[in-house]
Amino acid sequence: MEAWDVTIVGGGILGTSIAYWLANRFEGRIAVLEKEQDVAEHTSRRNTGVVHRPFYLDPVGRKVFARCAQVAYGMWKEYAAARGLPWLPVSTFEVATREEGVARLEKYLQWGLANGMGEDELELLSPKDVRRYEPNVRCHGAIWSKTDTAVEYHAFTESLRTDAEAAGAKFLLGVEVGPIRDAGDLLEIVLAEPRPGQAYVDPRRRVRVGVGTASLRTRFLINCAGGASIDLAHRMGVALEYTDLHFRGEYWEVEPAHHDLSSRNIYTVPRHPELPFLDPHWIVRADGRREIGPNAVPVSGPYTYRGFFGGPKDVSSMLLDPPLRNKLRLLVNPEFLNLAAGEWASSLSKGVMAKRAREFLPGLKVEYLVRPGTAGVRASVIDRDGSFVKEAIELPGPHSYHITNYNSPGATGAPAFAAWIVQRLARSGQVDHLKPKAPKPAGSWDFDRICAAIEAPAS
Is residue 273 classed as helix, strand or coil in its secondary structure? Predict the structure, then answer.
């Protein structure tokens, strides 16, 4: 089989967005390898489903994520209108459940404005103001992000896939990546044995890869494998100074009769912003459902949606995968261990989850939580100091580029971040083997405008 020019591993919202931009900017053989039978089957659809506004992102310390979130808001809004996709601007109250959290809200107001939000999009609220808008919410104050919007990221990703295919990209579904070998000027991607009942067939019959196909060759690989991205990078000798832990976020669905407890998303100021533990939120879904969650339960791997460990092998992998020092430094942190124990408790008991949410929504009763809702797993990267890395990590490798730790607000900023990545690859000569296409400016999806906005100096 002829070699691919660029192969993207991972058909989540980031991998699909990168495929969209590459196919629209360049001529060439561009493939996306996705181990599931559809795109966006994992973190890209198993999240809060919110287009987040960047009021809570430090405009200096988290500049790239903040800029991408700001730029992508207009992109997603325009895209949803053009494609007829759900777009429900429910807005968000981020509330201070403790008096000391009010200072954080004031900082959020300054951050939001510095990140490009309009003064009409943000408002600081007193406890009395909050009760006027949402009578069932109790707090010491809130910041109101008026343009936070509920969406269906799976639908966004499917639509972007269609657009990427129309521009020339190919999606190979049901293809799981095994070892990757250096083949001179190429990489040979060995395909793992198919799981029982699995065939390498795109369900829409656009691309078919025979079960007998043992490997693919590519000139360049982009690692967008999400929860498996660190493992893939390690296989290629990249990111060896990092390791990761996986945390499952669980939600409970609220009985429809009690949806009127709040018409808006309710978040809380995090008590431990340096750790991946958030107090539960009240979430309004794009279809009108309400859910309480998430927690952050340590689990053994990126696809552990039930239970905690698959067996002794999973436990040893979770704790002993190299570099061991990173996790050991974290696991002697008593604050982390205490918080992790509390997260496990909220997974075992919906009563614990309801009790945590009653801190800001005292009228919520445990019997209102009628069934388990969304469950998703986040992979959080740990550095040599045993600290969680906040920003996405981008690392070059042999004939490859690796993106890991692409977490919140990952789905929000994906189309802007993907454009920025494609620009960086082009500037560094990594995609010089592709032939440029004539640019097609398209409103808020203008490539050059997006990249310029992300790179603009602080005002």
Answer: coil
